[in-house]
Specification:
Largest sheet: 5 strands, mixed
Number of strands: 5
Mean pLDDT: 81
Order of helices and strands: HHEHEHEEHEHHHHHHHHHH
Shape: elongated
């Protein structure tokens, strides 16, 4: 069984890495990962609005020449109030020992610091807060990686199974390879490729962030979330891949895959949008982090925002593993009962009964 599974998985990998569509999609994902880290750093704080306390020397002129909008403040308290209210991006106030210092809310305003030539002391009024841009980009990034890879690889698995049925190649394959080995090989082979893409995306993102002088504190904050995202992604992908394989086995023509894949697409799309829309709702995210189809993105996000206890990702991963084992067992039975039925679309009930008939 294991030797046959490795044979099928190796064939899946060999076919995919020579496929032009797979290579183009991989390059596209890597470009998006690089752009999402490089571009924000390049355009960070561009066009900033800065409050300047009267009597801070030629600071206002320096910032104005750097292309920033300057707002006058009567004293340090007024400047701090403007920053806290969000009326300005930063404030330049007199320093305690002469010179100036910069007030900012949750991150260092790099463009202001660069414009002032010599770096003044920076006081973060809320250093533990998550950058609003990161609070939007991180949930979108995690969700989109899982969403697109699950959809793209899932459709390819279904198409591969249906193609083998349509050309009757499957009838030859099952004489040499156990049916369950065909299912396991397809899931493991495509899972290995998807895992490889995720690792490349993470590597490119980290390298790009460091290349543009990214915040090392941010890398430390993202580290635990990425570390947990990897096992959640692998288990969640295997769960969905087994269902995609069953989808391909239930139909006999490529044209019927889109209609048959409606339920599994909902299982991917609904959690995707729930995580995107409710990522700032702690109660909703707690519930989603224990639902198998949304846990691969919801739990790593809770870890990133610091909302999850140490034991929670362990429990959520165990629940996901149990759900994956159950889905794989059900998928294996339906796969065996529908793979050799080439007379049109097979219902779930017919596939289940066909397996019972063969066993009896």
């Amino acid at each position: 069984m294991w030797a046959a599974t490795k044979l099928v998985a190796g064939r899946e990998i060999a076919v995919k890495i020579r496929d032009r569509t797979f290579l183009i999609s991989t390059v596209l994902f890597l470009l998006i990962a690089a752009a999402s880290t490089v571009l924000p750093a390049i355009f960070a704080n561009s066009g900033s609005t800065v409050a300047v306390v009267v009597g801070s020397g030629d600071t206002a002129g320096t910032l104005d020449r750097a292309g920033m909008e300057v707002v006058s403040a009567t004293d340090v308290a007024a400047a701090e109030r403007l920053v806290r209210d969000g009326d300005v991006d930063a404030a330049v106030v007199p320093g305690d020992g002469g010179g100036v210092r910069v007030l900012a809310m949750d991150r260092t305003p790099d463009s202001v610091v660069r414009a002032l030539s010599s770096a003044p002391p920076v006081q973060l009024l809320d250093p533990d807060a998550v950058d609003p841009m990161l609070a939007f980009l991180v949930p979108v990034s995690f969700s989109m990686v899982f969403f697109f890879l699950s959809i793209s690889f899932g459709v390819q698995i279904a198409q591969s199974v249906t193609e083998e049925k349509q050309t009757r190649i499957v009838e030859i394959l099952v004489t040499a390879v156990p049916v369950r080995a065909l299912l396991a090989g397809k899931v493991l082979g495509n899972g290995a490729l998807a895992f490889g893409q995720v690792m490349l995306i993470a590597l490119v993102a980290v390298v790009s962030m460091q290349a543009v002088g990214g915040d090392t504190a941010l890398l430390g904050q993202l580290g635990p979330a990425i570390a947990w995202f990897i096992p959640f992604f692998v288990v969640g992908f295997v769960l969905l891949a087994s269902l995609w394989a069953v989808t391909g086995a239930l139909v006999s023509r490529q044209e019927d895959i889109s209609g048959a894949s409606g339920p599994i697409q909902l299982l991917i799309m609904v959690p995707f949008f729930l995580v995107i829309f409710f990522n700032s709702n702690p109660t909703a995210m707690t519930a989603l982090s224990y639902v198998p189809f949304s846990a691969p993105t919801a739990m790593p996000l809770r870890l990133f925002f610091g909302d999850a206890a140490t034991w929670e990702p362990v429990l959520a991963l165990l629940i996901l593993l149990a759900a994956a084992a159950l889905c794989i067992a059900l998928a294996a039975r339906l796969y065996e009962g529908s793979l050799l039925r080439t007379n049109g679309k097979t219902s779930l009930r017919a596939a289940w009964q066909e397996r019972e008939t063969r066993v009896s």
